[in-house]
Amino acid sequence: MHNLIPKPVSIEVGAGTFTIAPGAKIYLSPATPALHAIAAYLADKIKHTAGLELEVLPTGAEPPAGNLLLSTQEGDPALGDEGYTLTIAPAQVTLRAHRPAGVFYGVQTLLQMLPPAPTSASAALPAGTIRDLPRFAWRGAMLDVARHFFGVAEVKRFIDLMALYKMNRLHLHLSDDQGWRVMIETWPELARRGGHTSVGGGPGGAYTQQEYADLDGYAQSRFVTLVPEIDMPGHTNAALASYPELNRDRLAPDLYTGAEVGFSSLCVDKEITYWFVEDVVNELAALTSGPYFHIGGDEAHSTKGADYVRFVEKAQQIVAAQGKQMIGWDEIAQAALRPDTIVQHWFSPGAQQAAQRGARVIMSPATKAYLDMKYDAACPLGLNWAGFVDVQTSYAWDPVQMLGEAPARALLGVEAPLWSETLLTMADVEYMAFPRLLGIAEIGWSPAAGRDWPEYRLRLAAHGPRLAGLGVNFYRAPEVPWED
Ligand code: TNX
Predict the structure, then answer these.
(1) What was the pLDDT predicted at 119?
(2) What letter does residue 72 receive in the DSSP assignment?
(3) Beta bridge partners of 93
(4) Of 222, 169, 43, 162, nearest to 470 (Cα)?
(5) In a designed cystine with 307, which of 64, 233, 268, 294 is the match (CB 3.0 to 4.6 A)?
(6) 19 pairs with which residues across the strands?
(7) How far apart are CA 266 and CA 300, in angstroms?
(8) Rounded to the nearest whole angstrom, what is the distance from the C-alpha of residue 316 to the centroid of ligand 1?
(9) Best residue for ligand 1 mutational test, from 299, 373, 388 (most atoms within 8 Å of Cβ)
(10) Given its phi and psi angles, is residue 247 left (phi above 0), alpha (psi -120 to 50 degrees) or beta?
(11) Rounded to the nearest whole angstrom, what is the distance from the C-alpha of residue 386 to the centroid of ligand 1?
């Protein structure tokens, strides 16, 4: 109970243990499809970790002793949509929440109390009561599938891993100078031509619309909202290379496989630019179950200031017309923003200034939260323009302190971006994301008051065998006394 990540709001230790014995069943109250799906997920995990097959009862009934109950009845509404109460008694495990998301997070807590690797056919859980709810609504990670492409199965695995640590937003960076990664039926060359390379000249790739919709649905099953990003008006060489008519002189540039930024721009005064933006936003919004659409907006060094502002304001109208809430990086704060537009901080004071004017913000400070920064000088992967970010640095900070004068309620939460210029495989991605992602997950979920590196480092150490058991290629940071 004391090695949980993220750390729960309250733990009351009880006496004894609950043993999941052969024949134990999972009861549901009420027996809704949502609870059934979570119970099946729990049963599947228990089968893998403890070698026990738990039956999920398809009807709501009172469980006799020796069983588990998942319930959205009598859940405490004060714990919100994602909070839960997990009671482990020698006779029964009871997990109550106001909503299915809370049950799912309670299940994650329960799973972290099971042995990390397969054992013999019984598993004991320590008795006690955990009451828990997240500090922030936005607990995100970002995967750059543009610089190097990662396929559906790889992204699903990443979603699975995030969900274990109660993260609930996956921002996909779907376009950049080096690649366009999702099929847009009205502009098919974006994926066909713009998608077929990557940094260093690899083969690239792009999701079909069916694959993207499948990813979105899969993410929902793990209580993760996908946030699509199409970066504009800069970072657009792949689009410009795919359609000559998007260029000022109607001449398409070559595909780009380098890693420099800031040279490309959509033509802000061409009418066709906005037809393009509208079609892209329209198609992608239709594939997206979540309420957000990210337009990037960073490092538009080849777009004049006034043009940039005009572009962002038009993009904002287009996104709103599709019924989505716009998100953009710090730089969009130069434009007149709608009250529901969200600004994501990475490096400049843009988000802070927007927050003072009433905007909601997501904190992704490069010096703390960037998972593509090297851990140290010896790190074989990653970049270091924002400095080295070791495990302690990425854990020991608080997003509220980065708001300056802005009120704390402006803060929607945190997100850890993983840019992939130097990352070719999922093993590379995992090496940079783990273990730092666990620290960001805790910053997003747990109260700030409990944040203590010497204590966290020991809790993190206990997750070594868990990550290893999942086959995660994590970095064995020397400042953590990893358990075997
Ligand atoms: C800056 S962060 C960028 C990305 C790069 C990243 C590398 C941001 C909004 N823009 O284009 O990939 O640095 O760390």
Answers:
(1) 66
(2) S
(3) 68, 88
(4) 162
(5) 268
(6) 124
(7) 10
(8) 22
(9) 299
(10) beta
(11) 10
- The DSSP letter of residue 104 is H
Catalytic residue among 278, 299, 421, 442: 299
Distances (CA, A) of 443 to 31, 391, 415, 436, 448: 34, 13, 10, 11, 7
**Residue that the structure tokens 């069916």 belong to:** 210
H/E run at residue 106: helix 100-112
pLDDT score of 121 more than 60? no
Q: Which amino acid is at 76?
A: D
Q: Which residues have any ligand 1 atom within 6 Å of their CB? A: 261, 298-299, 329, 346, 370, 372, 383, 419, 421
Using CA positions, which residue lies closest to atom 4 of ligand 1? 419
pLDDT computed for residue 122 by the predictor = 63
Residue 79 burial by Cβ neighbours in a 10 Å radius (0-12, 13-18, 19+): buried
* Per-residue model confidence as pLDDT tens digits over 134-180: 999 999 999 999 999 999 999 999 999 999 999 999 999 999 999 99
First to last CA, the chain: 18
Is 53's pLDDT higher than 80?
A: yes
The residue type at 451: R
Asked if 39 contacts 474 with a C-beta cutoff of 8 angstroms, the reply is: no
Return the structure tokens found at 472.
Answer: 């995660």
